[in-house]
Amino acid sequence: MEQIINGIWNTWNQPQLLSLFVTVLICIIISLLVYFKVKKVKPNQAPKGVALIAEAYVKGIDNQYENTSGGKLPKSKVYIFTLGTFLFIGNWVVIFGLEPIVTSYSVTLTLGLSTFLGIYAVKITYQKWRMLKKYINPLNIIGDFSPLISISFRIYGNIIGGATLMFLIYSVCGYMWTLIPGMSNHEWYFFAPFITPLLHLYFDLFGGLIQAYVFSLLTTIYWVSEANTPEKKTRKNKKIINTNPQLY
């Protein structure tokens, strides 16, 4: 029994799971807070405080989606809003000293799979049987998997790359301390606070925000591109030339 418990603990004892739990908890708390604050706003009263911030945030995402989609797939707007918010909060949990949720490839692969399946859902809805013409060439079948691979590895690679770079910088700072005479046996990150704050601001906060935006934007573009139904060919009116010589 003890071995089973230890096996389960070793399997689930991942820092990203705690980050995922905290992310969902923050989303629920913010949703409830915004709901009750917006509910108190009267129709003839201008929103302020939390309600004003929530309105500006929702309106910003709404305008961005409309500009990207051109008014297509209006029902997908809710999912894109949820996706962007989830990734934004999940990447910013580093403020609490937690790992970003996308440092686990299982998270990015799951979200990428949702985008991938959404592509086929839109394709079947708008193109119907015409989508099968594409697969006459077998290479197109392989090419259809490229969005799943690219969109999942893009956000994962960027966040992991930033974290790896920060680890190397901290290692260098610790090594610099050992170069001080008498401190060769003690690795202390004394120089790190003078170098890393701006880098944390860029890689953790700004980078996390940009990657959440890019992932949501690419999902929108992939889906909208499949909603473009081919225009029906129209017959050109043939010009009738009257060769009656009496008209000339």
From TrEMBL:
Record GO biological process: proton motive force-driven plasma membrane ATP synthesis
Keywords: ATP synthesis, CF(0), Hydrogen ion transport, Hydrolase, Ion transport, Membrane, Transmembrane, Transmembrane helix, Transport
Sequence similarity: Belongs to the ATPase A chain family.
Protein name per Swiss-Prot or TrEMBL: F0F1 ATP synthase subunit A
Membrane disposition: Multi-pass membrane protein
EC code(s) of this entry: 3.6.3.14
Keyword Magnesium tagged: no
One matching Pfam family: ATP-synt_A
Enzyme class: hydrolase
Main location: membrane
Gene3D superfamilies: ATP synthase, F0 complex, subunit A (1.20.120.220)
Domain of life: Bacteria
Example GO molecular function: hydrolase activity
Keyword Transport on entry: yes
One GO CC term, this protein: proton-transporting ATP synthase complex
TM regions (residue ranges): 17-36, 78-98, 104-126, 155-180, 200-225
Subcellular location: Membrane
